[in-house]
Write a structure and sequence with these properties.
Radius of gyration: 28 Å
Number of helices: 16
Helix content: 25-40%
CATH topology of the largest domain: Aminopeptidase
Strand content: 15-25%
Oligomer: single chain
Amino acid sequence: MRLVSPAEVARFNAELDAHHWLGHRLTGEVVRYVATQGEQWVALVGFGSAAFKCGPREKFLGWAPDVQFRRLRYVVNNQRFCVLPAGRRPNLASGVLGRVLRRVSADYQASYGHRVLAVETFTDPARHTGACYAAANFTPLGYTLGFSRSAGRYRHHGAPKLAWCRLLRPDAAVILAAPFDHPVLAAAARRFAMPDLNAVDLSGEDGLLARLAALPDPRKPRGVRHRVAQILAVGVLAVICGARSFTAIGECAGELSQEALSRLGARRSPRTGKLVAPSEATVRRTVKRIDAGALDRVVGEWLLAQVRAGHLEQNVLALAVDGKTVRGAVQADGRAIHLFAAMTHQEGVVVAQTEVDHKTNEITAFRPLLEPLDLTGAVVTADAMHAQRDHARFLVEEKGADFVFTVKANQPDLAEALQTLDAGSFSPCPH
């Protein structure tokens, strides 16, 4: 099995026109394959965009209409499958399908920047039994209503087709129907693993919404449409998924499905009856007026609880403690703001953060930053500034954590003492 090269498309089309009753026309995001034996072409496979609507497929996947239209690109249609005269032998058709299904997701990622989680197709019962699809583990979903769609209009042709679907991973249906986008749908590689927002605790007694609801609302009651907890929750989840500006947060909010908005407790529009997300302007105004320190503390504690509960898929809690000067944030005295934060290694999630006063440094902020956190069994990493006896004793004796500190030449006695220790003097690695 291999992709058809651009120079071979004309031959591919001619072979389909000669041997397939529907001809060569493929629509949407098209990928073409040819199966060869030696130099001989034995089968042709063409994929394109999924059907805009299909009742049996929608019932099988269980997705809501607004979710369907956003995630339809992750389903592709096997629009053409043709075994050429040279390939007509037992088991070749199912073998070709099996091989192409193992690579189609990666090929769509390379060609169109997104993965494929499911493959659909339609067979005409008057012409084919679909035995090769059944042998390739496709699931028969039921018959269509006998309509075709062209140029945005539907035409009743009166020949219902049998719809089939093959999931390319066991949890594909759950991912496609989930309220929030699953990490596997991310278009590009990320520095940190994208969390699955479908798994985090949003509405429980100790969930994000309950924690945010405890924050005082800085707005005047008149004209308030969205509750402060819902506004902040949208911003928090968008930032976790990579949003780095209010504009990006607004775009994320606009893409939320009705089910996702329901989980967030969004308000319902009296005009349309649909749940609506807060606008970018509403998020911006609310975040700017909220107590930043209180919001940091609430969100950080919730994120740490999600890591502890395994909702963010981190096996060992590892926190990096470091400080950074914020670019573009200048105080009234002209000095830049310096933030000291604790961030999980795997996801890059900030679980605690504080501003360092210009009259002090990160050393004095170390204990206050970590004291509220449950660090039992955690590993805390820090740079050479924090290679302090007090910091080490605080982590081990008071917080029940381990630490990895950098030691440099500006602490010559400590560096020399460490070099004389053998490997058995250190804590064993948990892995």
